[in-house]
Amino acid sequence: MIPELGHFALILALAIALALGVLPLWGAARGDAALLGIARPAARLQFALVAGAFACLAWAFAENDFSVTYVAQHSNSHLPLIYRLTAVWGSHEGSLLLWGLMLTGWTAAVSFSRRLPEVFAARVLGVLGLVNAGFLTFLLFTSNPFIRLLPGAAEGNDLNPLLQDPGMVAHPPLLYMGYVGFSVAFAFAIAALLEGRFDAAWARQSRPWTLTAWLFLTLGITLGSGWAYYELGWGGWWFWDPVENASFIPWLLGTALIHSLAVTEKRGAFKGWTILLAIGAFSASLLGTFLVRSGVLTSVHAFAADPSRGVFILALLVAVIGSSLLLYAWRVPRLEGGGLFSDVSRETALLINNVLLAVVTATVLLGTLYPLLIDVLGTTKLSVGPPYFEVVFVPLMTPVVVVMVVAPFLRWKRHALPAIVRQLWLPFAASLVIGLAGAWGVGVFSVRGVLGLSLATWVFLASLQLLQQRLRGTPAASAVSRLADIPAAWWGMWLAHIGIGVFIVGVTFVKGLEQNADVAMKVGDSAQLAGYRFTLQGIDEISGPNYTAIQGRVQLWRGNQLVSMLTPQKRVYTANNMQMTEASIDAGLFRDVYVSLGDAPTPDAWVLRLYYKPFVRWIWAGCLLMALGGLCAALDSRYRKRNKSEAA
Amino acid sequence: MKARHKRFLLIGICMALLAGATALVLFAFNDNLMLFHTPSEVAAGKVPQGRAFKLGGMVLKGSFSREADGITTHFTLTDTAQNVPVLFRGALPDLFKEGKGAVAEGSLDAQGVFVATTILAKHDENYMPPPARDAIDKAHATERTLK
Predict the structure, then answer these.
(1) What's the CATH code, domain A1-164?
(2) How far is the alpha carbon of A298 from chain B, nearest alpha carbon, in Å?
(3) pTM score > 0.90 for this model?
(4) N or C: more exposed end of chain B, with fewer CB within 10 A?
(5) What percent of chain B is helix, strand and coil (3-state, nearest 5)?
């Protein structure tokens, strides 16, 4: 009965979404206040219905209702409750329902914003309603999670063991929050095109939404990277896997968008470009969904290959991109040029940053789609290796970081070149020296090592310099109150840019100094790696709630000091007899030591993979700083003040 | 410089940057394309020695052996028509088994042995990597046309 309620709620939600997608837009065009008034309640009702459907599916999982096909396929009564609940988004249908929940959630959040003018809010909600209608149609007709299995199964198939992990609790919801959040930026852009209003107020209203989506996407990608690191058992943190790229492409465009929006708000420039980026970021999110969910890619994330689903998402994608670009082409003559700026100015710096980010996006997109294209067109199968991305990414991102360091020092409109050179040459030279010396000192003396360390040092020094510049002329006694006066948005920028520096440090050290070895060991054997001694003390058989495992006891020694005891496992999940490697990690601020247990070549020996990963935590710490920066910027009080003239 | 000249200069610099990026991309792209080949293609001598590629197929039953060091393994990848001997040093992925599909990355040595640097791990018991599936399907198709 409960699953039917969920199904029914979804159908009702589709009807509401259609009403929301049509009536307020019609009302806005006609100036009909009654139709406009539908928008906010409809947006909230739609969310309540989808949330209800989601709760029904979660209930079916919690209660082990194996007469629902989706539950029977992806759960098991021995699965711990927390994983039964996360199994809701463990496969195609449920993860799409989560997508829908996020989309309606964002829509409802917009409906509570009182800072938006009534007509504009109705248009934004209407556009979101249209997107949601398309999406719910897709869900109901190709991927309904509530379909019954008759007769019901006595026991479920179990969740893919790979997904039975705390990472599953947070990674998909955060990632989807980000992905889907760009729909709001998209709806703002479309509503602006419909209305022909592209003023500073529009950009200011759009910024906190875009920043929030961006920060969730950053968190989602970071968590995914960390999860892959310890769960896949190979110690990598980024594989340039097409699915990872699918989330990285919207991130790159979103990053360009939050910077371009700043120019549009402050200087009224880059309007057309900002709108294109908003369309692009959401289209990239849809493209990502298509790539991941259609089964054209084979990866951890591709659940089931069903051509009709792929075709449907592709049609949705074409409809969204096609109609918004048409609207853009029709309305773009109405865009007025923004303020003029000279060739040395903050606008120029942000322009270069945007062009470069767009180029990087294009190269990642090329590497991701090319193998698919070739596969469709010809008989050859090929793949683009990670070296391609690394070779292209570093030279293109280096100038982005350089521009990122310089831009905050530049004034809007015009800045004298000699002045900026005078201001920045000393920390630049110092960074170069520190980078060279540091790289030589720790043994990463290569082009990449020197480049990475110099850039990171420059980011840190320049950040200090920026802060000092803000406080110049302030007596020490009032420095604290002066710091408190700095707007949150500025702190956000500052933190996020430092995050980039921290990230670069992590990548440089991991790439330059990581070590690994595969060794066959018997109980009592020792192996050496990077100054550590690993001693295999014993192998135990243990059993968990739904698996049995062999577990190695590996002592980690540094000289005569026992650092820690590592317990890598090799699990066999009983429901589907699947084998899983669980790595064991001794984590630290400056290095991780990572051990995973491989197969047994002879009955009394095991293969162990040993890794030494210096500074690997800095990679994720840098990303978290970026997300924190996004949070600060999104919470800036400027966005929360209601402007009377705008509301009118 | 007049404003107009400045703008040309700016556009010129942007174009030069983009051209540089394009050159970089094409250069890197060409170097890093990795083709998939089937054991039949390898046997027919269609694959150049020394260049890295991906080899897909099924691990031949009874072909798996391990050297005394416990790390170096030998096995044969087959598309049911032709076989290619493979050498791999390292820990094998969880789902590597005789009779199951696998994809190896590496290159051919002078003796015609495929020296693998990576064996691709997949995460589902019943899953056959598409290139491996393809290799076997192709071999079956050729067999049928020959009959």
Answers:
(1) 1.20.120
(2) 8
(3) yes
(4) C
(5) 35, 30, 35
